[in-house]
Write a structure and sequence with these properties.
The chain is an all-alpha fold and about 120 residues long. It is about 80% helix and about 0% strand. Residues about 5-15 have low confidence and may be disordered.
């Protein structure tokens, strides 16, 4: 508990984020998010093929995109670090996703508009 409290105090006092994730993994995950954004048409193609099974194509597309990135996080952690992610690394990954989530959604919405 003390370490957790200290981490929060240091984070807010210095206004800097303390990274726990290996820099190689962080770079790969940002590249994977970029890849999902750039290949959003593929996700829309999958979503369109499921149109009779779902009412909300945008949410399904977003779920597929997040699933691709989530899978890559676990795969790359094991490949690069030869272990599972720590709780702190996972929290940093979730933070990374939350910061770029809107960017992913916008790319999917644009691809969806062009698909019609």
């Amino acid at each position: 508990m003390y370490c957790k409290t200290l981490f929060i105090i240091v984070k807010y006092m210095t206004n800097h984020y303390i990274f726990h994730m290996d820099a190689r993994l962080r770079d790969i995950m940002n590249a994977k998010i970029d890849d999902v954004i750039n290949k959003s048409k593929e996700i829309i193609a999958i979503t369109s093929s499921l149109k009779e099974l779902t009412d909300d194509k945008q949410e399904i597309a977003f779920g597929i995109a997040l699933g691709r990135v989530y899978n890559a996080f676990h795969y790359q952690t094991r490949r690069i670090l030869k272990r599972n992610a720590t709780e702190q690394e996972f929290r940093e990954f979730v933070d990374m996703l939350s910061k770029r989530g809107e960017e992913i959604k916008k790319a999917l919405q644009l691809s969806m508009q062009y698909a019609h």
